[in-house]
Specification:
By secondary structure, the chain is α+β, with helices and mostly antiparallel strands. The protein has 2 domains: 109 residues, Translation Initiation Factor IF3; 100 residues, Alpha-Beta Plaits. Helix content is 24%, strand content 41%. The chain has 3 helices and 11 strands. Strands 1, 2, 3, 8, 9 and 11 form a 6-stranded antiparallel β-sheet that branches. Strands 5-6-4-7-10 form a 5-stranded antiparallel β-sheet. The two termini are 43 Å apart. This is SIMPL domain-containing protein. It comes from Natrinema salsiterrestre. It holds the Pfam family SIMPL.
Length: 249
C-alpha cells in the first residue's frame, strides 16, 4: 500500500545481557562447558523487548447518528423516535448504503426526573451506526442524516478493513523485530561480544488505533452550505516483541 509509512522510531522497553545462562539451543556439548560441568563464561544471552508501528490511510469509517425525542408519555416519545428513524433509514436508502451496513445503535426511553422525585415527561434517543468502505462519503452521510432530521450527532471512527488489518499486522511485527535486532546488535557491540542467533521470540499484542472525529455537519447543506468534510489522520497499527539472542565473548 503506497500510502503506508513505517515509523523509524524504536520503542524499546527492556534490554538485558546475561552471561553464564542455561544452555541455549545454539550450544553444543563440545567446548562449551568447563570440566566441572558449568557453562563457559564466554557464552550468554541478550534479551530485548521492542515495539514497532506502521501507518496507513483509513479505508473504513463508522458514522454514528440518531434522533432524539421528548414528550408527555413514553408512547408519544416512542412514536416520534419511530418516525425519525424511518426518515433516517430512507436517507440511507437514497444513498444506496447496503442494509447490512446500517446497524442499530442505542435505543433508550427514560422519564425526566424532577428534584422532588416526580417525573416531568419522557425523553429518548434512537441511534444508528453506518459503516462505509469509501471514507470520502462520510461528509455526504452526515449531511444527508441532518437533512433527514438527525439531531443526535455522535462520532466518526476511521479505521481499517479486515484485509488491511491482517496485512499491517505482519508489517508491524516486522518493524518490531527490526528494532529488536538493531538494539541487540548495539548492546553486543557495546559489550564486545558477537551475536550467534535467536533462541526465543515472544510476540505481544498487535493493536489498531482508530481515529475518532465528531460527526458534526458544517451547515445546512440543503440551503447551499458547502458539503461537510471530515478529514482523518492515518490509522496506526502497533506491535511488540521480546527476543532472546545467544552471544559469545
Amino acid at each position: 500500500m503506497d500510502r503506508r509509512q513505517f515509523l523509524a522510531a524504536s520503542t524499546v522497553g527492556l534490554a538485558t545481557a546475561v552471561a553464564g545462562c542455561a544452555a541455549s539451543p545454539l550450544s553444543t556439548d563440545d567446548g562449551d562447558s568447563n570440566p566441572d560441568g558449568s557453562e563457559s563464561a564466554g557464552r550468554g544471552e541478550i534479551t530485548v523487548s521492542a515495539g514497532g508501528e506502521v501507518e496507513a490511510e483509513p479505508d473504513r469509517a463508522i458514522v454514528s447518528v440518531g434522533v432524539e425525542a421528548s414528550g408527555g408519555s413514553a408512547e408519544a416519545v416512542t412514536d416520534e423516535l419511530a418516525t425519525g428513524a424511518e426518515r433516517l433509514r430512507a436517507a440511507f436508502d437514497d444513498l444506496e448504503i447496503p442494509e447490512e451496513n446500517v446497524e442499530e445503535g442505542q435505543y433508550r426511553i427514560s422519564p425526566v426526573r424532577r428534584r422532588d422525585g416526580g417525573t416531568d415527561g419522557f425523553e429518548g434517543t434512537h441511534s444508528f451506526e453506518v459503516t462505509l468502505t469509501d471514507v470520502d462519503r462520510v461528509g455526504e452521510v452526515v449531511d444527508a442524516a441532518v437533512a433527514a432530521g438527525a439531531d443526535d450527532m455522535g462520532y466518526v471512527n476511521f479505521t481499517l478493513q479486515e484485509e488491511t488489518r491482517a496485512e499491517l499486522r505482519k508489517d508491524a511485527i516486522d518493524a518490531a523485530l527490526d528494532n529488536a535486532d538493531a538494539e541487540a546488535a548495539h548492546i553486543a557491540d557495546n559489550r564486545g561480544v558477537s551475536l550467534e542467533g535467536t533462541t526465543a521470540v515472544t510476540s505481544g499484542d498487535v493493536q489498531v488505533h482508530p481515529v475518532r472525529r465528531e460527526a458534526m455537519a458544517s451547515g445546512d447543506a440543503a440551503g447551499g452550505a458547502p458539503p461537510t468534510e471530515i478529514d482523518a489522520e492515518p490509522v496506526t497499527v502497533s506491535a511488540s516483541v521480546t527476543v532472546t539472542y545467544a552471544f559469545a565473548g
